[in-house]
Amino acid sequence: MALEVTGKLHKVFDVQQVTDKFSKRELVLELGGKYPQLVLFQLTGKRCGDIDEYRVGDSLRVEFALRGREWKGRQGEIRYFNSLDISKLERVEARAADAGSPADVDDVDVPF
Q1: Could you tell me which residues come within 8 angstroms of residue 79 by beta carbon, excluding any fewer than 6 positions away?
Q2: pTM of the shown model
Q3: Residue ranges per domain, the chain?
Q4: Which of 3, 7, 75, 81 is deepest in the core (most CB within 10 A)?
């Protein structure tokens, strides 16, 4: 299930080598609206460099998948984690009326 959101690039982190075969790179998008949200997304594997051509402040359209997993600790406690895995990034040209303002949270396309 692919989801889509448009927002302003707020921060880009360095690549993290999690295991020998798995690396990830996180980035934060600012989603506008009455109460702007800072949302963490991730690129994994060979896609880690996909963010290199963009700069903080750029408006981006992001296609992503919502992922979730269960984790069991050493003492038996169970926790759940979510991640937003990016499949596609592209720059959005700001319209004259929208220049400099991030997209609304309402721009999230959630198919039901």
Answers
A1: 70, 71, 73
A2: 0.78
A3: 3-96
A4: 7
Cα torsion through 79, 46, 1, 77, rounded to 10 = -10
Residue by residue, DSSP assigns 33-93 as SSS-EEEEEEEEGGGGGGGTT--TT-EEEEEEEEEEEEEE-TTS-EEEEEEEEEEEEEE-P
Provide the pLDDT confidence category of residue 94 given band limits of 50, 70 and 90. Answer: low
Cα-atom radius of gyration of the chain, to the nearest Å?
A: 15
Q: Is the pLDDT of residue 109 over 70?
A: no
Does position 100 have pLDDT exceeding 80, yes or no? no
- What is the model's pLDDT at position 103? 47
3-96: which CATH topology? OB fold (Dihydrolipoamide Acetyltransferase, E2P) (2.40.50)
